[in-house]
Amino acid sequence: MRNNAPVTAVERTFGQATKLISVTNKDGTIEQCNDAFVEISGFKKTELIGQPHNIVRHPDMPTEAFKVMWAHLKAGKPWMGLVKNRCKNGDYYWVDAYVTPVTVHGEIVGYESVRSCPARQDVERATSLYQSINAGKGQTTSLAVSAENIFLIVSIAVCFVIFMLGFKQLSEGVLLATVVIFAIWVSLNRQKTLATLNKMLSHAFSDELAVRSYTDESGALGKLQVAILSQLAHLGTVITRIESAALTVAKQSEAGAALTVQTRKDIESQQAETMQVATAMNEMTTTIAEVARHVSDTATNADTANELARRGTNVANVTHGSIQQLKNTVLKIGSSVRGVSEQTTKIAEAAQMIEQIADQTNLLALNAAIEAARAGEQGRGFAVVAEEVRNLARRTQQSTKEIYTIVTELTGRASEAVDIADAGAKDAEDGLLHVVESGTMLSGISEAVNQIAQMSTHMASAVEEQAHVAEDINKQIVSISTLADASTESSVKLSDTITYLNKIADELHELVVRFKR
């Protein structure tokens, strides 16, 4: 048995209309409790939930009382008793407890306890009884003799005395005997009536310890009183639970009504936002269509640019070949011009040689003329020939000078042509490099444009898919708007239902209040 300590001598009380309610599982662990129980126990609700119910057990409570309680509860029967409980700080409070098993599909799953404020005479009686039991003096079975039994014994004794006295004073004896016999009959009839009532209430709670706690009677009358009290307690428990449920329903109805109003406002707000989203989706659908058109145009332009780049690459390749041929031709021209220049040089050299020969011939002709003049008449013919040779030498010399001048000029021009050919070859080489670079760039442009075209195609597909998604979203938004309209209508109906439920809860509460009167 759990021993909660320390304890004080301070008693706490609560009002007659207050009910302490708690629900445990089948192991006695608290699962639910009301605020009244929390308040008087001194514990926080979080300190009670999940704890054994004997957390409030007082050391003054005898073990026998709880043994009887568990015997009844595990048998599926209710139990009633006066219990002294301990507060968190050690104070105590008395309760008139009525505990019933909670069953689901015939199986016990927990226990429910409804406790009310006991009468003071019952508390005093229970205090004395529990002290006696704890001291080892108490008995769970009463040995007291009922008043009916005492009266019956006395009546029989009187009849025996009358019989022993004889028939003296017969009239008085007969009268007395008649009275005694009638009293005996009344007593027997009363006991029979009590037995019949007890039999009728055989399903009600009955326990000797409870009899001694709740009444000063014993025997059948005491059991009958306890049975009636237990039935009243059972009825009170039912009424209390109905009242509690009605109050809970009323609170939940109020909360539900407030929630419904808020939900309705939220739905209306959602409808407005949904309409805004629908408008935005329509605009987005239009924008997506415009983007799709631009993407399609971009893809077309990219294809055109790709084709132009491809053609440019081809032209660059052709130009590359042409410039390469031009380079080769220029190189050949340069080579030819160099050959001409070399031949011209040789001609110049030959002209110089001829000029030298002409000079020598002229000199020889001059010498021959001089010698002919010396020879006189005999040398005249030789002088004529020498003069002609001299003239020929002078003309040759003159022609040679002209040839030399022309050859010199030709050599200069050939040299310039060679330089120009070399420059042309270099320009052709540079142009060839530029054409190669242009071809590479055009190839890169073609590849980039091709990638752009592919990306545009993918973008077009993605935009088209987004257009379908946007259209689906638009349909869903329309559906949501329709559902919101239906939800608004449903919330209105739900609000009416909750209002009606709240009215029923109020009527049920009023009915319980009237029934308790």
Automatic annotation (TrEMBL):
GO terms for cellular component: plasma membrane. Residues 21-60 form the PAS domain. CDD domains: MCP_signal, PAS. It is found in: Cell inner membrane. One of its GO terms (biological process) is positive aerotaxis. It holds the Pfam family MCPsignal. It is a multi-pass membrane protein. SUPFAM superfamilies: Methyl-accepting chemotaxis protein (MCP) signaling domain (SSF58104), PYP-like sensor domain (PAS domain) (SSF55785). Keywords: Cell inner membrane, Cell membrane, Chemotaxis, Membrane, Methylation, Transducer, Transmembrane, Transmembrane helix. It comes from the Bacteria. Residues 245-481 form the Methyl-accepting transducer domain. The chain crosses the membrane at residues 150-167, 173-190. Its main location: membrane. GO terms for molecular function: transmembrane signaling receptor activity. Belongs to the methyl-accepting chemotaxis (MCP) protein family. This is Methyl-accepting chemotaxis sensory transducer with Pas/Pac sensor.
